[in-house]
């Protein structure tokens, strides 16, 4: 039997109602009903074993049987900032970064980013993060935010111990990644890359330029690879 399906709810009560999209998915796609075991998540990091006890119009009532701490979250916080990408590339990056365990994702517009953004897209990114979190058994959904400027995005990284800026025109890395320890904020540009001024601004704010090698990677490759490298070095993929 496959592992019990996971659903996010706002609040856990002894009898918790599954409503809205989570309900539709449970009822219409997974065909869950009375007696089925599920796991409820409230984004706090805990997991709750529950059993569907009643099917109602627009809701499934679930009895919560027990709780435990989720054990899939990274010990060291990693935040990924990525330039807004074209088509569905941003969604791809949000999905993969969630699987790799980041706790925050920031999407930003910058001088050379050409993609279009609206509130629906931001909601869509949040939904992608939630689905990915469920699929990879996380108990928290990374927070997804949008920054209108690169400066805003960079300024949102105050609490991070390491600030790393993947720069396609940096010849060598200013930080020794092999000895990396502690929380990390990573920045990757959009298809158009960064300007010299943007890099200078980031350095003034304490970001170290990082080279990802001699080849120019596509933005989505750079974002996913950089996140994977850093989470590995911080001991989260072992
Ligand atoms: N249009 C640019 C390339 C942008 S690549 C050009 O033609 O030069 C998109 C982003 O991926 C970059 O802004 C950077 O953050 C990252 N990136 C790609 N290759 C990289 C490399 N070799 N080193 C560091 N960052 C890289």
From TrEMBL:
Residues 73-230 form the Ribosomal RNA small subunit methyltransferase E methyltransferase domain. Keywords: Cytoplasm, Methyltransferase, rRNA processing, S-adenosyl-L-methionine, Transferase. Its main location: cytoplasm. It catalyses: uridine(1498) in 16S rRNA + S-adenosyl-L-methionine = N(3)-methyluridine(1498) in 16S rRNA + S-adenosyl-L-homocysteine + H(+). It is found in: Cytoplasm. Its EC number is 2.1.1.193. GO terms for biological process: rRNA base methylation. GO terms for cellular component: cytoplasm. InterPro entries: Alpha/beta_knot_MTases (IPR029028), PUA-like_sf (IPR015947), RsmE (IPR006700), RsmE_MTase_dom (IPR046886), RsmE_PUA-like (IPR046887), tRNA_m1G_MTases_N (IPR029026). Residues 18-52 form the Ribosomal RNA small subunit methyltransferase E PUA-like domain. GO terms for molecular function: rRNA (uridine-N3-)-methyltransferase activity. The keyword Acetylation does not apply. Pfam families: Methyltrans_RNA, PUA_4. Specifically methylates the N3 position of the uracil ring of uridine 1498 (m3U1498) in 16S rRNA. Acts on the fully assembled 30S ribosomal subunit. Belongs to the RNA methyltransferase RsmE family. This is Ribosomal RNA small subunit methyltransferase E.
């Amino acid at each position: 039997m496959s592992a019990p399906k996971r659903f996010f709810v706002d609040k856990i009560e002894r009898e918790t109602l599954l409503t809205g999209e989570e309900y539709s998915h449970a009822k219409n796609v997974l065909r869950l009903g009375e007696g089925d075991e599920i796991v409820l998540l409230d984004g706090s990091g805990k997991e709750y074993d529950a059993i569907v006890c009643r099917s109602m119009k627009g809701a499934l009532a679930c009895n919560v049987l027990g709780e435990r701490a989720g054990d899939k979250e990274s010990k060291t916080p990693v935040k990924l900032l990525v330039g807004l990408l074209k088509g569905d590339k941003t969604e791809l990056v949000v999905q993969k970064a969630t699987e790799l365990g980041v706790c925050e994702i920031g999407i930003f517009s910058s001088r050379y980013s050409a993609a279009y953004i609206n509130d629906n897209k931001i909601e869509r990114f949040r939904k992608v993060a939630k689905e990915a979190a469920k699929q990879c058994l996380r108990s928290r959904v990374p927070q997804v935010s949008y920054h209108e400027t690169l400066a805003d995005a960079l300024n949102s990284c105050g609490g991070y111990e390491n600030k790393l800026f993947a720069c396609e025109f940096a010849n060598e890395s200013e930080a020794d990644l092999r000895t990396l320890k502690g929380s990390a904020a990573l920045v990757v540009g959009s298809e158009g890359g960064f300007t010299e001024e943007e890099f200078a601004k980031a350095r003034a704010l304490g970001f170290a330029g990082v080279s990802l090698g001699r080849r120019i990677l596509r933005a989505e490759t750079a974002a996913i690879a950089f996140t994977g490298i850093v989470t590995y070095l911080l001991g989260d993929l072992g």
